Amino acid sequence: MPAVVQSAFESWSLPVPITFALLLTACIYARGWIRLRSAFAGVTSAWRLVAFMSGLATVWIAAGSPLAALDDALLSIHMVQHILLMAIAPPLILLGAPALPLLHGFSQRFVRSMLGPLFRSTVLQRLGRTATHPVFAWLAATLALLVWHFPAAFELGLRSAWWHEVEHASFFVTGLLFWWPVVQPWPSVARWPRWSIPVYLFLATLPCDTLSAFLAFCDRVVYPSYLSAPRLLSVSPLQDQECAGALMWACATFSYLIPAVVVTIQILSRPGGHAPEQSRTAWNGVAAQSTVASKVEVV
Fold first, then answer.
1. Which of 196, 62, 213 has the alpha carbon at shortest distance from 138?
2. Which of 203, 299, 244 lies closest to 75, judged by CA?
3. How far apart are CA 299 and CA 294, in angstroms?
4. CA 274, 277, 280, 282: dihedral to nearest 10 degrees?
5. Per-residue pLDDT tens for 58-71?
6. Strands (E), the chain
7. DSSP for residue 176
8. What Å distances lie between residue 4 and 29, 157, 159, 231, 252, CA to CA?
9. 41 in helix, strand or coil?
10. What DSSP state is assigned to residue 187?
């Protein structure tokens, strides 16, 4: 193991706050998922549990694992963190349909006394509708991506641990907002026709492609901190930057292309405009979920 990597790993310490928060969330979700499976076997499935837990694990790998100890040495590793937080963890978490399992994971007294009034708040509902609107979600994710990759903002995140956490949080939160219209987790309702989602995903690739091309083909190091960073594997700062740009282009392209293809296939598999049997089954599941939700008196 190179001395720089060994030193970075030795300096790494377990980030207790984020690790505890993720473990607590996982426990609450698992408790609610088990309760739902026991009471209503058809409401949720094992693959949703796996998706949600994988999303939480991805967040920890990006922000809490020893990988974070090397992000100030290689831009390419820093870019991997951003990809995990924006393009991998959010859709996995949303595919876990977290609303019902999390609600059932809390005590019923807490749900009725705290969460119920909160979710019935008109202000909160209006804010939620605005934040999950496709236009707002696309703009929020795009602005977070571009703003934090401006040299001044990026360097601020490298120099300050607090701003680095804010950067990661903004990537993750806007990632959840961006993927919300694509995954459309229960109990949300689609705001746009489904055929618009492939276009939505295609438009999201444009800022990523622009930024990745700039990093890959720029003839100078954009972020000065990496000029003085320890060298790993004899990779120069410019080569590292080119690798980071290539990683962003490849990962962003495939993370948006694959769901766009899936959605397109779903749309084309509806002959005569009638929903296939899978869609009817999904609607039956939503109806069952609505019944369960009424038990906790949240809506």
1. 196
2. 244
3. 7
4. -130
5. 999 998 888 777 77
6. none
7. H
8. 39, 21, 19, 8, 29
9. coil
10. T
